[in-house]
Task: structure prediction
Amino acid sequence: AALYADGDAARGLPACVSCHGAAGNSTITVNPKLAGQHESYLYKQLVNFTTPERNQPVMTTFATMLSDAEKKDIAAYLAAQASKPGAAKNKDTVEIGKRIYRGGIAEKSIPACASCHGASGTGIPVQYPRLAGQHQDYTGAQLTLFRAGGRHNSPQMTTIANRMSDDEIKAVSDYIAGL
Ligand code: HEM
Ligand code: HEM
Result:
């Protein structure tokens, strides 16, 4: 928790709080909220950032600087924080997003997101992350990365994202922000 809030100047490690917000409730929409995310998922991502599975310049640098014990500590700290709710912003597409989230798109063989991420978006530990309340910009960016091949740590999500159009990604990401 100290490392999350303060970083470690001696090692050149910035404070996580500067991007991910107080207690993991990021207010910058390109930086994910981490509060209330499952511990196992958070730890897995910090490990994945250190390999080509999830290469992202900023997080790859910082995750590489964290020891295994520090990754575990930070994951446990963040999982115990309360997640602040978000809101869907586009009432024209929120119904489309809801349909995709709850029922998938049968003609494109896209399964319901709810089947893995839960009806209310809280995910299913150990494997399936919480999505509820996440920033639309971040969720949309990750779906695009899975589709474009920039994030290769989930064959399931790669298959699903490859079947989605930009408009479908936007709609479902906005709906998820309000879950
Ligand atoms: C993503 C943790 C510092 C920017 C993530 C994720 C974790 C994390 C677990 C993945 C979240 C998910 O998959 O839902 C941390 C920790 C930090 C830290 C423990 C401190 C040691 C920072 C800082 C910045 C930053 C200082 C900004 C300069 C980002 C961004 C992403 C991200 C942009 C999304 C990456 C992507 O597009 O794949 N961080 N973070 N983080 N973090 Fe951090
Ligand atoms: C991760 C969205 C359906 C399994 C994710 C993430 C997003 C997402 C945005 C990344 C979360 C983050 O970075 O914090 C969706 C949407 C779906 C959908 C919009 C419906 C269109 C599914 C289904 C499954 C699934 C049906 C199971 C068959 C997973 C898994 C991860 C994940 C295992 C974690 C990958 C990892 O370890 O990095 N999903 N998902 N998702 N999703 Fe989905």
In short: The longest helix spans residues 136-148.
